[in-house]
Amino acid sequence: MKINLNVNGVTFPVDIEPDRSLSGVLRNEIGLTGTKEGCDDCECGACMVLLDGHPVNSCSYLAVQTDGRQVTTVEGLADADGLAPLQQAMLDAGGVQCGFCTPGMLMSATALLSENPEPTVEEIRIGLSGNLCRCTGYAKIIEAVGSDAPST
Known about the structure:
The chain is of the alpha+beta class. Helices cover 30% and strands 15% of the residues. The protein has 2 domains: 2-76, Ubiquitin-like (UB roll); 85-146, [2Fe-2S]-binding domain (DNA polymerase, domain 1, Orthogonal Bundle). It is built from 5 helices and 5 strands; from the N terminus they run ββαβββαααα.
């Protein structure tokens, strides 16, 4: 099946089987490996991307469902000038260790901050709740997302 996959503002015509996951197509056909494949069961959030600005687990989203829609991956957050402010904040706060969960965390946080630029700590926790991290213990990630967020 031929579809036009719009990823990070670039259209990729791809010919895929209708049962292919979005994460698999992003990684294997397009070569964007920032989106991780962790649990393959919507439990870990490592595969999180934005679809029309909303976070989705790309491991369970069929690529054919995205035909003509806008997909944003972690690679799409940075620009020619460098990292996006949230990416830099994650590094500065020490919210990155092994890095496996980082793309999903960044995508969930980007969606949260686009809806709510000044979230409380509790709102950040809820916004990141679909993402698992086994290294940092979340404190540094939450700090990165909203170091100025009021405590709740």
